[in-house]
Amino acid sequence: MFELDMRSRKPIYEQLVDKMKELIMNEVIKPDEQLPSVRTLATELTINPNTIQKAYRELETQGFIYSVKGKGSFVNPNNQIKDLEKIETVKKELEKLVIEALYLGIPASQLIKLIEELDASKGGGESND
User: Fold this and answer.
1) What is the pLDDT of residues 89-115, one digit of tens each?
2) Is the separation of the CB atoms in 124 and 117 below 8 Å?
3) What pLDDT is attached to residue 25?
4) Confidence class of residue 121 from pLDDT cuts 50, 70 and 90?
5) What confidence category does residue 36 fall into, taking pLDDT thresholds of 50, 70 and 90?
6) Nearest-5° angle of CA 29, CA 34, CA 35?
7) d(CA 21, CA 24)
8) How far apart are CA 54 and CA 10, in angstroms?
9) Which three-class secondary structure state does DSSP give residue 27?
């Protein structure tokens, strides 16, 4: 379910957050589905439970999951990535990156091709909403 790169410069908890978000957005993990407990996942991935807890906290802060005391963490059904504020934030970040890429000499056509490839591989776009 999770492939973490222990040699990556990216912190393990960030890798875990990214992977969980991907699974939630692609509906591999369904709304209101319970996530593995911190202990279970820590044992399965052989990483410190505090790392899992930090990732779960970050996912909760971002609105992807919610916690029920004594029950565990669950996928937030209200998180249908149509959150306008989140979309605006992503657009602004993307705009900065595109400007930087253009400045570094990457042709616009290459950026467009990359976006189209990513869209095709992720199954994104309006038709899949």
Assistant:
1) 888 899 999 999 999 999 999 999 999
2) no
3) 78
4) confident
5) very high
6) 70
7) 5
8) 14
9) coil
In single-letter form, the type of residue at position 110 comes to: Q
Residue in the block written with tokens 């992503």: 90
The amino acid at 57: R
pLDDT in tens, 1-17: 678 888 889 999 999 99
In terms of Cβ atoms closer than 10 Å to its own Cβ (0-12, 13-18, 19+), residue 66 is middle
Alpha helices in 12-83 (DSSP H): 12-25, 38-45, 49-61
SS (H, E, C) 66-121: EEECCCEEEECCCCCCCCHHHHHHHHHHHHHHHHHHHHCCCCHHHHHHHHHHHHHH
| Cα–Cα dist 40/72, whole Å | 12
Query: Are residues 87 and 129 in contact, defined by beta-carbon separation less than 8 angstroms?
Result: no
DSSP label of 83:
-
pTM of the model: 0.64
